[in-house]
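Please check this one:

***
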Amino acid sequence: MLKFAKFAFAQSDDSYYRRLHRDPVRAMTERGLKADMVFLDLLLGLTQQDPKKRMTLDQVKNHQWMKGETASATMVRNHFYSLVPGRKCLNKEHYATMQEARKAWA
């Protein structure tokens, strides 16, 4: 579907889309988000306004970012709890892991 349809938000008056495609690092920094260049390359390839320029599924599957390290379920859970305000820790070990994750993502 993404290969054939135009993105509704990819219009000339969508400032976020324009910023992302003009200078992806700056666009992410302005929003307080960290993203490495390999991920941004994938994101830009997936969000091309022209469907003919958009990445194919095979290109996505073979992209460097898709072949990178995969987080374990524990890592994802700990990261989630480190970012969601008001979430309670499961135990002291979980609290320590949350604090480490907060520092790593700060």
Remarks:
- The chain has six helices and no strands.
- The first helix runs from residue 15 to 22.
- Residues 73-105 form one domain.
- The radius of gyration is 17 Å.
